[in-house]
Amino acid sequence: MRLLLDSHILLWLVTADPVLPRSRVVQLFDDRNELLISAVNIWELEVKRIKGKLVAPEDILDRAERAGFGWSDLTPDNALDAARLPRHHGDPFDRLLVAQAQGEAATLVTHDARLTAYDVPVMRLVG
Questions:
Q1: What is the architecture, at CATH level 2, of domain 2-124?
Q2: How are strands ordered across the β-sheet holding 70-72?
Q3: Which of 4, 20, 25, 99 could form a disulfide with 82 if both were Cys (CB 3.0 to 4.6 A apart)?
């Protein structure tokens, strides 16, 4: 299964945060899954880290690359699709990830229940 990680899931994975149950980590890293991340994840985490809104390692990109995740490329069509999504969620980072998941035919891995309102498969890990 193609799985596009929401930014907080990426952060929790690369920092081994205990908020993410071990059983869910094992589920994600099943060999049948293709784990994808986006430049949107890196952008969101770094913006929020710099603003002091979250604690994240400065080397988040290096950690993500060492973890071996695949990359979902952000396209101009993704940007248009994100802008045209219904306003179920106002966060531009999440809206871009929803559009990317739709474009990649991927399941969006998140804990944000608001993202289930979109026409995209969602795997909720916590909550």
A1: 3-Layer(aba) Sandwich (3.40)
A2: 70-72, 34-38, 2-5, 107-110, 122-124
A3: 99
- Kindly give the confidence (pLDDT) of every residue in the chain, 127 residues in length, as a single tens digit, with 9 standing for 90 and above: 999 999 999 999 999 999 998 999 999 999 999 999 999 999 999 999 999 999 999 999 999 999 999 999 999 999 999 999 999 888 999 999 999 999 999 999 999 999 999 999 999 987 5
Residue 33 CA to residue 4 CA, distance in Å, equals 10
pTM of the predicted protein model: 0.94
